[in-house]
Design a protein that fits this description.
The chain is mainly alpha-helical and about 140 residues long. It has one domain: DNA polymerase, domain 1. The protein is about 40% helix and about 5% strand. β1 and β2 form a beta hairpin. α2 packs across α5. The longest helix has 17 residues. The protein starts with a helix and ends with a helix. Bound molecules: FE2/S2 (inorganic) cluster (FES) (2 copies).
């Protein structure tokens, strides 16, 4: 069984989106031990003993009332249109934010673009999403 099927079909958590199902679009991105993975390529059996976070688990109260700073930045900067790419995009940003903080990096726009290159968005043109990521480091 693939991790995306475990999440969506067995656990009923529909925030993780099925896009290409071929590892190209990033819509299905979740965190495994804090790292972004494409759940459409990841075998569910390999999460044994690991910590998995989906978009549903990201809010600070785990109920959606207290949004994560990445979610707040995406809303504030207008990085969301249809929303299909958004859960996966946010999980990738979350992993990137952790990587930057651990390594004391303040990324520039080119580094942010590179970090997001595995997540496709058909609506926003990416500029506002990049603005949102940049704002996380300007206003931590
Ligand atoms: Fe997994 Fe597109 S649905 S990368
Ligand atoms: Fe529509 Fe990204 S907001 S695909």
């Amino acid at each position: 069984m693939l991790l995306i099927d475990l999440i969506r079909e067995e656990l009923g958590l529909k925030g993780t989106k099925p896009g290409c199902l071929e590892g190209e679009c990033g819509a299905c991105t979740v965190l495994v031990n804090g790292d972004a993975v494409n759940s459409c390529l990841f075998l569910a059996v390999n999460i044994d003993g690991k910590d998995v976070t989906t978009i549903e688990g990201l809010s600070r109260d785990n109920q959606g009332a207290l949004l994560d700073p990445v979610q707040e930045a995406m809303i504030h900067c207008g990085g969301i249109q249809c929303g299909f790419c958004t859960p996966g995009m946010i999980m990738t940003i979350k992993s990137f934010q952790r990587h930057c903080e651990e390594n004391q990096i303040v990324p520039d726009r080119e580094e942010i673009k590179k970090a997001l290159e595995g997540n496709l968005c058909r609506c926003t043109g990416y500029t506002k999403i990049i603005d949102a990521v940049e704002s996380l480091f300007r206003n931590p």
